[in-house]
């Protein structure tokens, strides 16, 4: 195989301070290339490892009025699990909202069927009360004893959630809601990749609430729901015939685009944390990475973020190990400008808008190491309590060897190697 194309641009590698900054960089680069070269949005693509990662890009694209389409998937706010949890919130904000109440009365499954719901509706209409108010009177509505108890239990769950919500931060309460409703337990019991993806989407919904709280002077449940409704309405206005493609790496095989943005290149995302257990799964992650990179016909951008929200909390991530496999001479490294998030990234690269840095900011020269020492600087490790990290320093001999590890949580720990319980990942 060979190509007759001329030598192209170097691969651009960009690290944002946050996932929002990463998304802003991608969208602004797309705008810049479109303005300069007149390429249609269909010539671009954004690749990510998990569906949940699309949300921050969808938000940024809406802000910039740029139409987009999710390949092989559903927009974030249209996903079933997102609609289910939002329905719980709508009911808690307004118990007379019978539309959302009917959606969640058997979500997760409680053995409350369509016929039972119809009996409750008839009872409520005959008594001139709302559907929510009819829930405690399931037995009077002619519903069998066991099913009537399930309905009363559901009603009590809603009352308990209303009480828990008082004085609690919305993002914290949403974690409680996902657990107390039984929704999270049901997904975990499925034990499938699809269920794991849906859990990741729910984590991202908590991140939406945390972002809302951080950007609003007086956050409230109703204000949050109003913001979500506005975003959903904007979704319907997008022109899908001239839209930016967004997709997971699994869907990229066989496709090609002139300009590809490969985002979220961080340990725990790519390679995904569930792939760290076996060499076979790690090989599959590396193959996926190769597929994604080779979808770019003219230009390739590799992007990640120093920190991103996970279940409402900021997590510090390490760059993907696969970045180290790319020869440094093929890379044009871009550092984020020394300004607050929101600065426009619109100048041409040859105007030196971005200061260059050496590839992956290599550490100073390391002292001579014992070849039998498994705790070499740069080695990826996993700790049963602190999670994933990278060894930054190793001191001492075999018996008293101490290692300093930088963990994704942002913590730096100095551990005695033989008692550290570290698992070497490579």
Q: How many runs of DSSP E, i.e. beta strands?
A: 13
Overall radius of gyration: 25 Å
Provide a count of the helices.
Answer: 12
The major β-sheet equals: 8 strands, mixed
- The share of residues in helices is 25-40%
Order of SSEs, N→C?
EHEHEHHHHHHHHHEEHEEEEEEEE
User: How would the global form be characterised?
Assistant: globular
Give the amount of beta strand, in percent.
15-25%
N- and C-termini, Cα separation: 33 Å
Mean pLDDT: 84
Q: Unreliable stretches, pLDDT < 50, 5 or more residues?
A: 339-367
- The structure class reads alpha/beta
Polypeptide structure, described:
By secondary structure, the protein is of the alpha/beta class. It has helices spanning about 20-35, 55-65, 80-95, 100-105, 115-125, 130-135, 145-165, 170-180, 185-190, 195-215, 220-235, 280-295; strands spanning about 10-20, 45-50, 70, 245-250, 255-260, 295-310, 315, 330-335, 380-385, 385-395, 400-405, 410-415, 425. It starts with 10 loop residues before the first strand and ends with a strand. Mean pLDDT is about 85; it is low at about 340-365.
Feature tags:
single chain, 426 residues, alpha/beta, 5-stranded antiparallel beta sheet, 13 strands
What is shown here, in short?
This protein is of the alpha/beta class. It has 12 helices and 13 strands.
Question: Mind sketching the topology for me?
Answer:
Blueprint lengths: L10 E8 H19 L6 E5 L5 H10 L4 E3 L9 H14 L4 H7 L9 H14 L3 H4 L10 H21 L4 H11 L2 H8 L2 H23 L5 H15 L8 E5 L8 E6 L16 H15 L2 E15 L2 E4 L14 E4 L45 E4 L3 E9 L6 E6 L4 E5 L6 E2 L2
Parallel strand pairs: 1-6, 1-8, 2-4, 2-5, 3-4, 5-6
Antiparallel strand pairs: 6-7, 9-10, 9-13, 10-11, 11-12
Helix pairs in contact: 1-2, 3-4, 7-8, 8-10, 9-10
